[in-house]
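To whoever is on call:

I kicked off a structure prediction for a single chain this morning and the downstream step that reads the tokens threw a length-mismatch warning. I double-checked the sequence; it's 525 residues and nothing unusual in it as far as I can see. Pasting both halves so you can look.
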Amino acid sequence: MRRAVFAAVAAAALASTLAVAPAASAAPAAAPSPIAWGACADQALTAAGAQCGYLSVPVDYAKPSGEKIQLALSRIQHKTPEAQYQGVMLTNPGGPGGSGLRLALAGKRVPNHAGDAYDWIGFDPRGVGSSKPALSCEPNYADYNRPNYLPLTPGMEKVWLDRTKAYAEACGKKNPRALLENMKTTDTVRDMESIRAALGAEKVNFYGYSYGTYLGQVYGTTYPQRVRRMILDSTVDPRYVWYQVNLNQDVAFDANLNTWFGWVAKHDDVYHLGTTQDAVKRVFDEQLLKASVNPAGGVIGPDELIDVFQQAGYYQLRWTLLGDALSRYVNKGDWQNMKTLFENFGGRGDDNGYAVYLAVQCTDVQWPANWNRWRADNWRTFAKAPYFTWQNAWYNAPCTNWPVKPGKPVNVQGKGVESVLMIDETLDAATPFEGSLEVRSRFPGAALIAEPGGTSHAITPRGNACVDNKIADYLATGKLPDRKPGRTADVECAPLPQPTPPPPTAAKSELPAKQSARVEQPLFG
């Protein structure tokens, strides 16, 4: 969910203080203008026959006649006869901060042409990507030569505190104040309702990934009468937004990295990094230490290594790519390949996703104001999760100095939502599985598919026939798996098997399209 940049796909429990959105916010301020659909700039969307356009919405829904912003949208229309049309499918890839325009392509990945009966709608949420204006604070903030994440001395801690404060201050100076004040989840939910109205749909279907599942929860709580069907892949736990969510992630990401170490050890004939999990871990730890003293090529320090290999905790489909990269780095001194990985996974030169991530999370809820709380909680978590705890802490630390006031999150309740299909792998690090169980308990009309032992995050549909066919059946007929009593999944599917690496000489070095690893993208295409 964060995250998916790393560093890479989230306030202690607030259940007693959460506030339901006021009833007055349950409808758009005014009927939005129709969307003028035209050609798309994105070649993949154009090739798929998509249309693109902009929707003007109030920057502040409390002032419907005031300043407007523009949301960028994409659409791939249904391919079935009108009698078989199932309506609008609104999508969101997560983050917060992920660009969603390409999610209009998601329908083609659903088996049995079950997606063909929907209009698939992608959109860049307010402040994101092609929406106008787009947030940015310091584009090169995630560049090389950052301080070591691990604050071993008070001086090192102060360097990071000064750095994160300066970023927050830059965000306040370089972006429209009115937009920063209206970047909460509830604002994007209002935008979703405006999109529904502009499309002329009485109800919408929704497919949300990671943070997108939280948008779905809040939309379903606020506008339950507008929800037809909903799919939530890798679900945020609404009890812990957002401070404790991030601490929970730290432990889960470390566990998944260690699982990957064990997988690398099983394939020592390919990678030559050690025959046991502990042996591979020692090699990795040695590289972190060496890089902290002498960054490889002058650019690959411990931060860059942590950022790259966090991807092992997100997606098993990247395990072979990362195994090959670590082997080449350790055994051949190939830091150039590591540099390429960092630049493709990270946020160098474009901090839009990070700026939006903070603009949402820092204002959804009040984060602890006392740094002593952060220090104690993160060192306590570090004892269990030494790899990613401080990386994540510094990623979120600008919230201690964010330039606009926070609000209060919605008390998520899904009693009015009739139909939700949830999917989650039980060792998902970005959105730990307990969050799916919690949301299932709040949505009586939900059914949960679990993938026991799976460690990947927010990637459906992705070739797992057991899961993908259930998604297709749900989209085609609306039928959910039978709901079981108790706090449990309703059906289980085995996760995809762990990958088998090719020999190093045949290992592919191609990278996915450049993206922020904190602003996790479902890996379509």
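Update from on-call: the warning came from a stale cache, not from the record. Cleared it. Sanity check on the structure: The longest helix spans residues 243-266.
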